[in-house]
Design goal:
Layout (H helix, E strand, L loop, with lengths): L1 E5 L33 H4 L7 H15 L4 E10 L4 H9 L1 H6 L19 H21 L6 E4 L3 H11 L13 E2 L18 H7 L4 E2 L18 H18 L4 E6 L1 H10 L12 E10 L12
Parallel strand pairs: 2-6, 3-4, 3-6, 4-5
Antiparallel strand pairs: 1-7, 2-7
Helix pairs in contact: 5-6, 8-9
Length: 300
């Protein structure tokens, strides 16, 4: 099985002293800690390279020296921009939202079933676009080599607004893959029921669906809400898939607050809540371990 863990000490977000409330990736170099690396002496003895260039060299060295059973990946995980469901929950209050309104398709003024981005949400994604553009140019940040997105419309829109039109390296084009299991907590809330495959294809005809992606939403249930343990189990499945089948190192994931929180639990990262449109990078170590994987509390 694959054992996943967070390699700490590289990003402010994995430091217990960093307060997640109000933290903004765009004012903190994505959270990359200003520090020296073991590899600086051979790569950049005169300190002429950016922190991100030195980090990229450090990660490549970790992968070169790790052997065949260990690999390291950097996950850039972005939460979607503000959606109409976020506005509705703020308006009605969380108790009324969870108990009543979240089960409706919308109200007289807006629809939040498979919620779309608001204008504010679009602006948040455009802010991310501008920040990536600046970081690629000034900080030489490694561009994602693979792009994955939740199938829910707000994430597809966020990924599109963020990465379309960037000056990306020729060998790292924005060619996203839609993955079912990167979606938000499943069930009850209509905002978390996805559109059909045909509807998604109509919106984003160039994008790729993962193999086996169903026409109709196979998981959403109007009565049962997915418990955290079940969500963590599926997060482990999708991460195992990515770490086993994608040889790339820098991975973009466009997802949701609940799902990114689940991924952070699965990789042993501290809890770090993200506001709409926020991004968290993590250095993850994956080890192939022989034997029985740790037991979970999920019944078969």
């Amino acid at each position: 099985y694959v054992k996943l863990s967070t390699v700490t000490g590289y990003f402010l977000q994995d430091d217990p002293a960093t307060n997640p409330n109000g933290f903004d990736y765009s004012t903190s170099n994505f959270g990359l800690v200003t520090r020296d690396y073991d590899t600086d002496g051979e790569y950049d003895p005169e300190k002429k390279q950016t922190q991100w260039q030195r980090f990229e060299y450090q990660v490549s060295k970790l992968n070169k020296e790790s052997g065949s059973k260990v690999k390291y990946k950097v996950l850039y995980m972005g939460r979607h921009g503000e959606g109409y469901h976020n506005v509705a929950e703020a308006y009605y209050g969380t108790p009324a939202w969870d108990c009543y309104w979240s089960e409706k398709e919308g109200n007289d003024t807006m629809t939040w079933a498979d919620a779309h981005l608001t204008q504010a949400g679009i602006a948040q994604a455009q802010k991310a676009h501008d920040f990536w553009s600046s970081m690629l140019t000034t900080q030489k940040i490694p561009a994602p080599e693979s792009y994955y997105s939740s199938p829910l419309t707000r994430c597809l829109q966020t990924a599109s607004y963020t990465f379309s039109g960037l000056s990306l390296p020729a060998d790292r084009p924005f060619a996203p893959i839609i993955k079912e299991l990167l979606r938000e907590d499943i069930g009850v809330h209509t905002c978390d029921r996805r559109s059909t495959k045909s509807e998604i294809r109509e919106m984003y005809p160039e994008w790729t669906f993962e193999e086996g992606f169903a026409e109709e939403d196979p998981f959403w249930d109007p009565v049962v809400r997915e418990p955290a343990e079940a969500q963590d189990a599926r997060s482990k499945v999708v991460l195992d898939d990515i770490f086993t089948n994608d040889r790339k190192t820098y991975i973009s994931i466009s997802s949701h607050s609940g799902e990114i929180s689940s991924i952070l639990r699965v990789i042993g990262h501290r809890n770090f809540g993200l506001g709409t449109g926020q991004v968290i990078p993590v250095l993850v170590k994956a080890e192939k371990v022989y034997g029985t994987p740790p037991a979970t509390s999920i019944p078969p």
